[in-house]
Design goal:
The protein is mainly alpha-helical. The chain is 65% helix and 4% strand.
């Protein structure tokens, strides 16, 4: 038995392996001995569910920062949370401010978690951690909005 994900190159490999085994008089059938990886199937299923509930797909930090710089604000809660996490993690000042607030709320050593495409439960873990840090995140978000308003004010009036 061989366990692999659903990539077509694995099917090609197993067919070739079946041929080699057959030439050596080894009983091996490429379809009967291919076990699909359950974790991979669960990940694909979770990603599809998240896409259908408008949670969007997990993205890397560079993609999210690019969306932020393009001014894309037409998003739902989970994508907004992703953007907030990336904004906090991208700036040493925001990260330090978040850590100070986290200590004030007795949430020592808890960091925000950003989900990734390859871990089926990472969106759940991101949401769970965000709920634990909700008070801290709300404060930091308010500071971010104030900073944004100040920079707009400076741009308009100076």
């Amino acid at each position: 038995m061989i366990t692999a994900d659903n990539a077509s190159n694995n099917d090609t490999f197993l067919k070739e392996l079946s041929t080699v085994c057959s030439n050596e008089n080894i009983n091996f059938h490429h379809k009967k001995n291919h076990v699909r990886c359950l974790a991979h199937i669960m990940n694909l299923t979770c990603q599809e569910i998240l896409k259908n509930i408008k949670a969007g797909e997990a993205q890397d930090e560079d993609e999210i920062l690019k969306e932020i710089s393009n001014g894309n604000d037409d998003i739902n809660v989970i994508p907004k949370l992703r953007k907030l996490i990336v904004k906090i993690r991208a700036s040493p000042q925001r990260k330090e401010r978040f850590d100070r607030q986290s200590n004030l709320y007795s949430r020592n050593s808890l960091n925000l978690i950003l989900d990734v495409k390859t871990r089926w439960n990472s969106t759940y873990l991101m949401l769970e951690r965000a709920l634990k840090l909700q008070e801290v995140s709300n404060f930091v978000y308010m500071i971010y909005i104030l900073e944004l308003k100040q920079s707009i004010y400076k741009f308009v009036f100076y």
